[in-house]
Structures are given as structure tokens and as C-alpha cells.
UniProtKB/TrEMBL annotation:
Compartment(s) where it occurs, according to its Swiss-Prot or TrEMBL record: Periplasm
Regions crossing the membrane: none
Statement: the UniProt record of this protein carries the keyword Transferase: no
Keywords annotated in UniProt: Periplasm
Protein name: Glucan biosynthesis protein G
Family per similarity comment: Belongs to the OpgD/OpgG family.
Pathway recorded for this protein: Glycan metabolism; osmoregulated periplasmic glucan (OPG) biosynthesis
Residue span, Glucan biosynthesis periplasmic MdoG C-terminal domain: 25-493
Native source species: Marinomonas phaeophyticola
Domain of life where this protein originates: Bacteria
Pfam family, one: MdoG
């Protein structure tokens, strides 16, 4: 029978012999495991027992990790770790180890780990001995309380918040075959290692082993909680097969409607419902691009070509309650996520996938970097990037931004018209501004620039005639001489 052992840092291990369980660990350990895994076909992930899988949502919600069992919860470190039980939608079992002084120990499950609806569920979870994910806690809002601020749960999904935010969009370790006819493949983090921070550290490191039918990977997350929360990601990938459709640093979000651009199909008292409202890109040539999101009637895939871009992200720009009028979801407090590549990503494109949706519980927006030639079997690939979970794009904060996009019809005509508001242009001479406009099909009829004293900025009106087109790409750039005066505005107009 295993005995309970409590180490000097307050963690409980259920094991027969601690010496036989601990082992030397570094990130190279994860890289070696990923490389070895890639040399043979993927083995199916271990699954939770059917009794746990068959639970309904209300029952699963009653399973909560015991607060007094939190890893490092009663120690000087500011961080603590809590765990998720397997069950309901979270069927895959995950191993979680902790690392102290260069040695790793497995975290085991006891009958006291979780508060559950009944003893049968407690015994089943204890017998399984593994988890469905983890969450990190840190006092990001006040010094007296450890708030949950990062979650790793389900496939390779993770999400984070900064001070004053609530959960919204998610990130993933990797995306494979998104929006492809053969169906998407979902890699999973099958094992985690969490390094114990010292009492003075304000960052924590999590390692993860990714496994999938087509690829394996070793991940290192350097996590800095606060205002804003930042995550340094380093991934080493080992493809099992040639991969044409691969997504690096994927972001997943939800967009239902924003009445200024996308009127809902059914009555809704809320003027906007979304976790993110736009894709923003900073290209390798320092062009800032803003692309409003859409909830289309049919699947839409857009590609923005570049060579090692300087950043991209899904942004929630409007931060006032009045913008959403939702007391429960509080979309005004949802984070934006910005990805800044650290090493050379080469040639490729940022891909935006917009999926038709009729429910705000569905994530229907995906954005990621896709290398031009994909990934080749038996080659090693390394990608490094910094993720920032801020209220807005954390770059070029002092220059004009696209603060509102809207569409309608030109007065006294049936011609479509778009309206774009830019801020931080109060001192600019309107006569020095010019519009560079483009439409892929049809023609531009009129383009007007006006001062907008209400936001100390500029408002642009562009009227166009799509002629017989059912879809047209718009590109609008506000210039001062030969220099861009504001982000380039892109939009895919679709005939309703």
C-alpha cells in the first residue's frame, strides 16, 4: 500500500518509494522524449473510466480540487497549483510532475484530492491516479488572494488573464489541418512538469510534452503574471509525417456579432457579443494591419503573407460595459492576445479562419502562423515567441488606432459604404491626408476623410459598387504624404 509522504515544500506524494520515483530533469528531458516518441506511431491517450466520462456537466462542476491540497499552497512561494479531475468532456488522462532542485517527482491523486458529489467518484478519481489539466494561482489583483490566472486543460489548449480581466479567448500549442476537408487533428499535452519557484520569484516555468498522430513537440512556458500577464513560449517540433497545413502559435476565439458591422440573425439586446473583435498584424515591414472579424454564413479562410512577421493577435478593443451590455459574460473584461515571434519564422502567412456560428459557446475564430512549405518529416523545428494577454495590442500604443468599423448604405443609394474611425489624430492637418483604396472586384465610388472631434481623430467613408460580385476584398490605407498615418484596414465584404 502506498504511503503518504510530505516533502519540505508542503507537497503530498502517494508512492511506495520516493527514491524510485524521482529523476533528474531539464527541458532537454522533454525534447528527448518528444524526439523518441516521433520515431514510432502515436499510442492512443489513456482515457478516464466510462463512469467519469458519462457524467453530465452539472455533476462534473461539483468536482473541485481541495484548496488545502494546492501544490505549494502553504509555502513562502507566491505561486500555487491546483488540478482538474478527469471526466465529462475531459476524457484524456494527463501526467503531472513537479520539479525541485533539478529533480522531478510525479504528483499522485489521493481520495482527499477533490471534493466530489459522492464517494464512488472520489474512489474512481483516486484509482485513475492522473489528471485532466492544471491551473496556476498568483495574487494578480491583490496581495491577499491567490487568483487563478493560467489554465492548461483539454488537448493543447491554454488560456490566461491579466489583472482585472476574465477568461475569454484561448491559445493552443499547435493546430493541425484547421478547416481542411479531412478534418482537424487535435494534438494534446500528455505530460506536464512544473518548476517550483523560489519565494522571491515572480515567474513560473511549465514544461509540456505534446503528442499527436502527425507530430510531437517539447514546450517550455515561462509565465509572468500581472499587468499584463506574459508567456514566453519555446517549442521544439518533430513531425512524424510531412505536414502541409500546420498552425504555429494558434489563437482560438469567438465572434457572434457587432451591430456596427455584423447584424445578428436573431433579436439580441446586446450591441456586441464577442471575445475578440479584430485580427491585428504588424508585418516585417512595420505595416500595421487591422482586419475586423466576421460571423459569416459560410466558412471563410483568409491568408496574409509575410516573411517573419513582427507580431499578430486577436484583439478585444472596446473595454466599456456599454459596448456589450452583458452583466454575466462581461465581454468588456476579456483579454486580447498578442504573439511576438522571437526567432526567425521564415516565409509563410498568418491564416484567419472564420466559421459560421449560432451560439456564443462555440469558438468560431482561429488565427495562426503557417510556414510556406509546411513541416517535413524527420526534421527538427524550433519556434520561440512571446504572448501578451493585454487589454489591447501591446505595441505602438502612442500612434493612431482603428477604434471602430461600421457598414451601411450610402444615403439615397443602395451602394454599400464602410466607415472607419481612427483616434489620436487631433493635431493632424486634414488637407495633408489622402486615401489609398482598393477593391478586388467592382469599383470604389467615393472616399472621404473628415475630422472626428468626438474621439480626437479622423473618420473615413468609402462607398463602393461590387457590381455582380458576391465577395470582395477591401483595402483602405490613410496616408500622410507617402507614409501610412494609421493602420491599414482590410475587410472581406460578402453579399448578404
Amino acid at each position: 500500500m502506498a504511503s503518504l509522504l510530505i516533502n519540505t515544500f508542503g507537497m503530498v506524494y502517494a508512492q511506495q518509494d520516493m527514491d524510485s520515483k524521482d529523476y533528474i530533469f531539464s527541458h532537454q528531458t522533454v525534447i528527448d522524449l518528444a524526439k523518441d516518441l516521433s520515431l514510432s506511431p502515436m499510442l492512443p491517450a489513456e482515457k478516464a473510466p466510462k463512469t467519469l466520462i458519462n457524467m453530465d456537466y452539472s455533476t462534473y462542476r461539483q468536482i473541485n480540487y481541495q484548496q488545502n491540497q494546492a501544490v505549494w499552497g502553504n509555502t513562502p512561494t507566491k505561486f500555487s497549483v491546483q488540478l482538474f479531475a478527469p471526466g465529462f468532456l475531459f476524457q484524456d488522462l494527463v501526467s503531472i510532475d513537479v520539479v525541485e532542485n533539478g529533480r522531478a517527482f510525479p504528483l499522485s491523486v489521493s481520495s482527499n484530492s477533490f471534493i466530489t458529489p459522492n464517494e464512488e467518484i472520489s474512489e474512481l478519481i483516486s484509482k485513475v491516479g492522473k489528471y485532466a489539466g492544471l491551473r496556476l494561482h498568483y495574487p494578480i489583483n491583490n496581495a491577499e488572494r491567490n487568483d487563478e490566472f493560467v489554465v492548461f486543460q483539454g488537448a493543447s489548449y491554454f488560456r490566461a488573464v491579466s489583472k482585472g480581466q476574465s477568461y475569454g479567448l484561448s491559445a493552443r500549442g499547435l493546430a493541425v489541418d484547421v478547416a481542411q476537408p479531412k478534418g482537424e487533428e487535435f494534438p494534446m499535452f500528455k505530460q506536464f512538469w512544473i518548476e517550483r519557484p523560489s519565494s522571491s520569484q515572480e515567474a513560473i516555468v511549465v514544461h509540456a510534452l505534446l503528442d499527436s498522430k502527425s507530430i510531437t513537440g517539447a514546450y517550455r512556458f515561462g509565465i509572468y503574471p500581472g499587468k499584463p500577464t506574459r508567456i514566453e513560449v519555446k517549442t521544439t517540433l518533430f513531425p512524424r509525417v510531412d505536414l502541409k497545413h500546420i498552425g504555429i502559435a494558434p489563437l482560438t476565439s469567438m465572434f457572434m456579432h457587432n451591430r456596427a458591422l455584423d447584424v445578428p440573425d436573431f433579436p439580441d439586446y446586446r450591441p456586441a457579443v464577442h471575445d475578440s473583435e479584430g485580427l491585428q498584424i504588424l508585418t516585417s515591414k512595420d505595416e500595421m494591419i487591422w482586419r475586423p472579424l466576421n460571423n459569416p454564413k459560410t466558412l471563410q479562410v483568409s491568408a496574409f503573407s509575410d516573411i517573419s512577421p513582427k507580431g499578430f493577435g486577436l484583439i478585444q478593443r472596446h473595454r466599456n460595459f456599454e459596448d456589450y451590455q452583458d452583466l454575466e459574460a462581461r465581454y468588456d473584461t476579456r483579454p486580447s492576445a498578442w504573439v511576438k515571434p522571437v526567432n526567425d519564422w521564415g516565409e509563410g502567412h498568418i491564416e484567419l479562419v472564420e466559421i459560421p456560428s449560432d451560439a456564443e459557446t462555440n469558438d468560431n475564430i482561429v488565427a495562426f502562423w503557417q510556414p510556406k512549405d509546411g513541416l517535413k518529416k524527420d526534421q527538427l523545428y524550433t519556434y520561440q515567441y512571446l504572448m501578451t494577454w493585454s487589454n489591447d495590442t501591446p505595441v505602438s500604443m502612442d500612434v493612431p488606432r482603428t477604434v471602430r468599423s461600421a457598414k451601411g448604405a450610402k444615403i439615397f443609394t443602395d451602394l454599400p459604404e464602410v466607415v472607419i474611425d481612427y483616434n489620436k489624430m487631433a493635431d493632424i492637418d486634414i488637407d495633408e491626408l489622402a486615401l489609398d483604396t482598393y477593391i478586388s472586384k467592382g469599383k470604389i465610388v467615393e472616399a472621404i476623410v473628415l475630422k472626428n472631434p468626438n474621439n480626437r481623430g479622423v473618420r473615413v467613408f468609402v462607398t463602393f459598387d461590387p457590381e455582380e460580385a458576391k465577395l470582395a476584398e477591401l483595402r483602405i490605407q490613410l496616408k500622410q504624404g507617402e507614409v501610412a498615418a494609421a493602420p491599414t484596414w482590410l475587410y472581406r465584404w460578402i453579399k448578404e
